[in-house]
Amino acid sequence: xxxxxxxxxxxxxxxxxxxxxxxxxxxxxxxxxxxxxxxxxxxxxxxxxxxxxxxxxxxxxxxxxxxxxxxxxxxxxxxxxxxxxxxxxxxxxxxxxxxxxxxxxxxxxxxxxxxxxxxxxxxxxxxxxxxxxxxxxxxxxxxxxxxxxxxxxxxxxxxxxxxxxxxxxxxxxxxxxxxxxxxxxxxxxxxxxxxxxxxxxxxxxxxxxxxxxxxxxxxxxxxxxxxxxxxxxxxxxxxxxxxxxxxx
Length: 248
What we know:
Layout: E1 5-10, H1 16-28, E2 32-37, H2 39-47, E3 54-57, H3 61-69, E4 76-81, E5 83-88, H4 98-103, E6 109-112, H5 118-133, H6 137-144, E7 146-149, H7 160-165, E8 171-175, H8 176-179, E9 188-192, E10 201-207, H9 213-222, H10 225-233, H11 244-247
Parallel strand pairs: 1-2, 1-3, 6-7, 6-8
Antiparallel strand pairs: 3-10, 4-10, 5-8, 5-9
Helix pairs in contact: 1-10, 5-6
């Protein structure tokens, strides 16, 4: 009996990856185990020697780093995402007043933890883009934003919606694939980030050097059209969408 495929995956894949693993298991008869967490911390676990076959990261940088050390094959992009703002409805946030609302000292802004979690890195990327257009604003936001999830010391079980509902923050910068789960909740609004400020978000996949054929087969399945349909169903975007939003 095969021992199965061990996957370390970004937490934002928590809804999509089980669907993909189930589809692969049904087709190939191979068990798949998935361990979720912030991708930066998962990379550290791999570097510390934790057994794995595939690493699915919410950015390209972490799997590319592992490839540069010889631990994995070259990283490939397997899906994409967007950064959006989940806000309490009473804030009245729109794409048009986003900069004004973010600039207000009274606005409490939540993000994930840069370094540990790519979501936090993408929030800082957005702040850098704001800085390029509004001098001083980006650096101010980096100092003001509350790093509340995705870190090695973050309390477990916290969510963007929960932090807003509890009144800890007014808005949270996070992935569209997560925010979509609250699209029908009148307590929240979801606001797209204007293209000039929006970071490019590519998810990278790295296969362990010397991985078994079953792991190679799962890597190939994750890059297939059936897997992409499952990712799209869960709020992700086609990996072929690179740069399209910036051109609009």
